[in-house]
Predict the 3D structure of the following.
Amino acid sequence: MSSDIDEAEEAVRVRFIVNGSKVTCAVAPRDTLVDCLRNSLELTGTHAGCEMGACGACLVQLDGRAVHACLMFAVQADGARVDTIEGLSESGAIADLQAEFHRRNALQCGFCTPGMLINAHELLARVAEPSREAIRDALSGNFCRCTGYEAIIDAIAAVAEARVDRAAQEREAASR
Amino acid sequence: MKARAFSYFRAGTIEEALDTHARAGDDARFIAGGQSLVPALALRLQAPRLLIDINHIDDLRGVRCEGEWLRIGALTRHCEMLTEPLITEFAPLLRAAAPFVAHPAIRNRGTLGGSVALADPASEFPAMMLALDAEIEIAGASGRRRVRADDFFVDLFETAVGPGELVTAIFVPLFRSNQRVCFDELARRRGDYALVGCGMLATCKDGVIEAIRMAFFSVGNVPTRARTAEAVLSGVRIDAERIATAQAALDGDLAPPESDEVPPAMRLHLARVLLGRMLGRLGEAA
Ligand SMILES: Cc1cc2nc3c(=O)[nH]c(=O)nc-3n(C[C@H](O)[C@H](O)[C@H](O)COP(=O)(O)OP(=O)(O)OC[C@H]3O[C@@H](n4cnc5c(N)ncnc54)[C@H](O)[C@@H]3O)c2cc1C
Ligand code: FES
Ligand code: FES
């Protein structure tokens, strides 16, 4: 076996764009993306629960799509754009979702919340006004041990409605 | 738990992936979506020394028509089954099955090639290959070949793909206007693996089923066609009596294995219930 594939058990350099900034870090090939975000980059908003793809606590956006950060290795993200809950919070992209979760008590311990928000963000980007059924379906891979799901679904449905209303008002204002 | 240490290689071409695997031998694994492989590594069910990432091989991507076939690149993600217009038009059974595969974020990464190569008997897409009479293109040391789905699934997690070979594309016969598809499954919870599931493709004329292929999953070591039930339904108009005959025929077609949770008799019962529902719908559409 040639050295390029034999020797790489030690750290390799990964470059990616995390929350809009270019980042370089050294990871072992077996470090998952969630390990790298939390341990190397100290972005601890992305949570590690099951580390098996079952709970949804570790969701991040990879090149704009929600993926489980526990189900890919950090080396695989080399050259990609990663957006975590910190980035989405700071940019204000999910401010309305966060406010509505807060208002409706859609979280208790908050462990599942980053994953819930990232999933909700992706759902609303794809479907403007999803049915409650569709919201449930989209969240079917996100476990919450505290709140139960009703308040979370209420919050997402309310934000969807508010966004649709706001878009309609803006269209009306523009046409006037 | 964490995966055991391994080396990582990002392949740029099919040849590079095959060569690298050949040099590493048994100790290497291809990684596509990683949605099954990464949990297996974390549990240390597998501990290869080398992972060969195939995600950056352009030849494995893309969906296009080639003559009488729809060619779906192995790296096509499950989520693309829901949005790619060519799949909706020419492989509507895959479009129908996709919402039942895992959860949205897993669908964003999991690939058709990975699902078919893994051949989990509880997975939706491998069985759909059988229902569609699809062909699986495999690249290996001696070049490329195409294997019919009927010959592809050998035993539990065992397929016609040899060690170090790569699934490069899936070829599905183009859907025709005189055809109907139907997909359904019974699961405890949406996104969970099915207790039993089925996909069917029927060719119809004036309300009569000329030919039908029905493939069940989660009922044995491999996805399974219900050949006797298919024969019962060929050349007839679907009615209550035919449905009952087809349901009875399943006893000879499916042999669910012993399991603590779901005894074989119960799984067979669920398969009959599912078949009844699906044929009811198909009868209306034919
Ligand atoms: C919580 C959870 C729920 C799930 N639910 C479902 C479900 O309901 N239904 C379902 O079908 N699946 C389900 N899955 C599995 C998921 O759909 C995977 O995407 C799929 O089974 C494997 O595809 P992959 O691309 O991720 O393959 P990987 O995990 O990358 O690889 C799987 C295996 O196939 C091999 N391989 C991959 N691509 C190729 C190729 N082109 N050629 C040769 N070998 C290859 C790999 O070496 C590996 O051995 C679930 C997964 C999780 C984590
Ligand atoms: S930590 Fe990734 S899904 Fe649970
Ligand atoms: S708020 Fe505690 S797990 Fe959801």
About this structure: The pocket of flavin-adenine dinucleotide (ligand 1) is lined by residues A 53-54; B 29-37, 39, 74, 101-102, 106, 110-111, 113-115, 117-118, 120, 123-124, 161, 166-167, 193 (CB under 6 Å). Chain A has two domains: 12-89, 94-174. DSSP finds seven helices and five strands in chain A. The beta strands of chain A are 12-18, 21-27, 59-62, 65-68, 81-83.
